[in-house]
Write a structure and sequence with these properties.
Number of helices: 31
Shape: flat
Number of domains: 5
Strand order of the largest sheet: 2-4-3
Radius of gyration: 32 Å
Number of strands: 8
Largest sheet: 3 strands, antiparallel
Distance between the termini: 43 Å
Oligomer: single chain
Amino acid sequence: MEGPSVWRVSLLGPPALESGVRLRTAKHRAVLASFLLDSAPLGRTEIALRFWPDQSDPLNHLRQAVADIRHGFGAEVLVVEGKTLRLRDREQFRTDTDELQECLSEARRAADPAERLSVLQIACGLGTGDFLEGLEDSEAGGWLTETRERVHGWLADANVEYAHALEAKGEFSEAWLAASEAMRWNPGDAEVSDTVLRLSLAIDARRPATLAGGRSLEETAAVLRRAEKSGRTPNPQEARTLLAAFGVRLVANEALRSVALALSGFKAPFTAEQARTIAGVRVADLQALVANRVLSEVDGRYAMVESLRRVLWKDLSPDEQEQFAARHARNFARWVREPRNPEAEKEHLALALHWHLANSKAPSVLAFLGRLYDLGLFDVCAMGGDWCVAFLRKEREAPPLRREAAWLAGRLALARHRFAEAVAIFETAVALAEEAPSQLGRADLLFHLSYACHHASRPKEAEAWARRSVVEAKRVGDQAGLAQAYRFLGEILRAAGRLRQALECVAEAVEIDEATPSSVLGETLFQLATLQSLLHRPDEAYANFVRSLESRLELGNPHGTADCLRGMALIQARRGQTVEAWANARHALELYRSMGKIASSAAALGDLAEVHICRGETEKALDRLEEALAIWKAEPHAGWTARVERRMAELLEGD
C-alpha cells in the first residue's frame, strides 16, 4: 500500500501514531529526527556512535533503526551513499518543528496585529511537550542537548512574542502566562524574566491588594527564584518585589527577622550544625523559616532565597558582617582537620579561604591551604596559589615559610597545568632547601621540578633533575621516593627513545616496590611490560602484564585493568591467539566505555582493529578504525587522527 504524498511527523511531545506510522523505539525516532533536521548526508558511524556509543556493535543498532524507518515510510526513503545516509526527499516530510519556524517567520512579517496574534497563538500551541520527549539527554550525547536548546529557543521566542502582542492589547494576565511559559523553555534569558517581572508589576499596580502578599507577587517571587537558579542577578526593583512577597511575614514577626538576619551571611546551602555553630540559630528557628518559605530545605541543607538574603545582609552593619565572616572562616579551619564530604562544602571552603588570605597570618593560611590541597580541592585552592607566589617574593619572610609556600604554589601550578610557572617556583624551592632544613623532602622537591620540566618541554633539564632526585633519595634512604624517581626517569628516557636505559630504571623501581609493600607495584610492572614489548621481548612483557593485571584487580583499579588487557591482547594477536586477543581487547573497550574514557576507548578500538587484521577480517577492522577516527576527530587529536587515517589507507591499498 502506498503512503501519503507528505508524511506528518511529530517531534515535540511523546511519540504519536501519525500517518499510520510509529517507530519501535525512542532512539529510532531520534535517528529519523537527525535526518529531518540536517539536510546534509550523515556518516553512518557518526550516527551509530551518537545513539549507541556503549554498545559492542553500534553499526548493527543503526541498521535496525534504518530498517524500522524504511518499514514505516517506504524502502526508498533513505539513500546510502558510501559511508553516509540521507533522506531521498526531505519535502516528503512535514514536522511540527517546521510549522513552528514557519509560524514565527509569518508572524514577524505580518503587518496586521490581529493576524500576528493569531499566528503566534498557533505557534505557542505547538509546544505541548519537549523535543523527542521520553529520550534522556544521556541517551544521545551532546546532539540531543544542543538540539533541544535550539528548539527551546524557538518555543521561547514564540511565547515571548505572543506575550508582547497580548501586552500591547492590555491583556496583562494572559501575557504573564505566555511569558512564564517562555521562561519554562528558556529560564536563563534576561529579557524573558524582565518581561515576566514587568507584567507582574503591571498586574499588581491594577490590584493593590496583592501587595499584602497575594497571588501575583507570590508568582513573581517564584519566577525570580527560577531566574536566580539560572545565574541571573536580580535588580533592585526585583529585590523589592521579593521583599514584598516574603518580607510581609518577617515584618510581622521580629523574632523571625532576627533569625533571618543572622543567617544572611550563608552564601551557600548550610547544615543545621553550621547554623548553630556559626550563626547561633536553633533547629526550631530554621524550621519556622522553612514554614514561612523564607528558607528551603533539601537533603538536610538549608538555603535562603538569594535576593532576600542579599537585602538582609545589607541591613547588617559592617562590624556584624565581619564578625559573621570571621566565625565562618574559623569554623571551617577547624572542620578541615576531620572533614566529611568535602565536595559538598566547596563554596563554604572557598569563602573561608578568601577570608583567611585577607586576615590570617602566614602559618595559618599555609596550614589551611595545605589541607585543602590534600583533600584534592584544587579549584578551591586556585586563589591560594597566587597568594603563595606573592608571599614567596617577600624575601624578608622566614625561609622555612617561603619554602612551604613555594611547595604549595608549585603543586597548585602543576594542578592547573601551568608548567613553566611551576618550574620557576620549584627552582626557588630547591634553592631555599639549602638554607631552610625542613620536613619537606628534598628528593620530592627535585622530583616535582623534574616533572614540571618534562611537561614544560624541557627534556634535558627534566632528566638532570630526575637523576638528582635519584641520588638524593638514595642518600636519605627514602625507598618510596627512590622508586618514584626511577619510574619517572624511565618515562623521560622512553620519551627520548632511549628504551634500554628506560628499561633499566624501571626494573630498579620494580625491585624496590617488590621489596616493600607498595600500592603502585601494578603501575610499575605495567611500565616495565610496555618497555619490554617495545623492545620485542614478548614473553617477558606478557608475564609482567599478567602480574600487573593481578595487582590492579586486587586494588579494584578498572582503568589499570583495561590497560593491561590491551597490552596482553596485542601480544596474543601476534602469537596467533586471536580468540583470546579479541576477548581481552573487547573487555578493555567495555571497561573504558563504562568509565566514560572516550580517548582510551578510541585506542582500544584500534587494538580491536589489529586483532581483526590478524584474523583476516579487513572489513571489520575498517569499521573499528572508522569508529576510532570519529572519536579522535571529535576530541580532537591531530596525531591520533593522522595515525588512524594512515592505517586505514594501508588496509585499503592492501585490498
